[in-house]
Design goal:
4 helices, single chain, alpha+beta, two-stranded parallel ribbon
C-alpha cells in the first residue's frame, strides 16, 4: 500500500468520542460500516498488538468468561486521562494476531446519570444516521448476570455491524467489584451473531 493511500484511509476514520459530543464525522453517508469509526483511536479489524504487548493483552484477559463458549476472548484495559474509564475488546480464541471484532468504551456512572447521557447521545446519533436502522430494546434483564439490567439501543448497518449505546445496572452483589456504567460499542456482525447464543 502506498503512503498516500494509507494517509487517505486514515483520514476517512471518524473519531467516535461522542461522550463529550466532539463528533468528528465527515458525513454519515460515508460510513458504510463500523470500520469507519474509532474508539480511543482504535478501529475494528486492527490488531490489538498495535496498541498493547502480548503480556498486557493476556493480563487484560485475566477474568472469568461470562459466555457459554470460548470462541471469543475478552480483554479489558483501564484508561487514564482519556474519554473513557476503560476500553473492552473481543478477539478470537487462539488468534495470534489478536484481530479486533468488538470495541467498547466504558464510563463509570450511576444509572440516572447514564440514562440522561444515553438519551442525549442517541439524539445526536439519530441526526447522523437518518437512513440507518435503529433498534431500541429498552430495559431488559441482563442475560449473563442475575438481578442485573441492560438499557440498550443500536444502530444497525446494512452489513449487520452495530453501534450500541447502553447503560448497565448491575446487582448489589456485582457492585462489590463492578460499578454501573455507560458504554458505546462497535460490534461486527460476526460478533453480534456469537452474542445471540453466548448466554444460552
Amino acid at each position: 500500500m502506498s503512503a498516500s493511500k494509507s494517509g487517505y484511509d486514515e483520514s476517512m476514520k471518524k473519531l467516535l468520542a461522542i461522550i463529550i459530543l466532539s463528533l468528528c464525522f465527515i458525513t454519515s453517508s460515508q460510513a458504510d460500516n463500523i470500520r469507519d469509526f474509532q474508539i480511543e483511536e482504535v478501529s475494528i479489524g486492527d490488531s490489538l498488538l498495535d496498541y498493547y504487548s502480548e503480556y498486557e493483552i493476556k493480563k487484560g484477559m485475566n477474568y472469568p468468561n461470562q459466555y457459554n463458549s470460548d470462541e471469543f476472548k475478552a480483554a479489558l484495559f483501564s484508561l487514564k486521562n482519556k474519554t473513557y474509564d476503560a476500553i473492552h475488546f473481543h478477539v478470537k480464541k487462539n488468534d495470534k494476531n489478536y484481530k479486533i471484532y468488538s470495541i467498547s468504551g466504558q464510563i463509570e456512572m450511576n444509572l440516572n446519570s447514564c440514562l440522561a447521557k444515553k438519551k442525549k447521545v442517541l439524539a445526536d446519533l439519530k441526526s447522523l444516521f437518518k437512513n440507518t436502522e435503529k433498534i431500541e430494546l429498552g430495559k431488559r434483564k441482563h442475560p449473563g448476570y442475575k438481578n442485573s439490567y441492560a438499557y440498550q439501543s443500536f444502530f444497525k448497518f446494512n452489513n449487520g455491524d452495530l453501534i450500541e449505546i447502553a447503560c448497565y445496572d448491575f446487582s448489589k452483589k456485582l457492585n462489590e467489584k463492578w460499578v454501573d456504567k455507560f458504554t458505546i460499542s462497535l460490534d461486527t456482525n460476526e460478533f453480534n451473531k456469537f452474542l445471540q447464543t453466548a448466554y444460552n
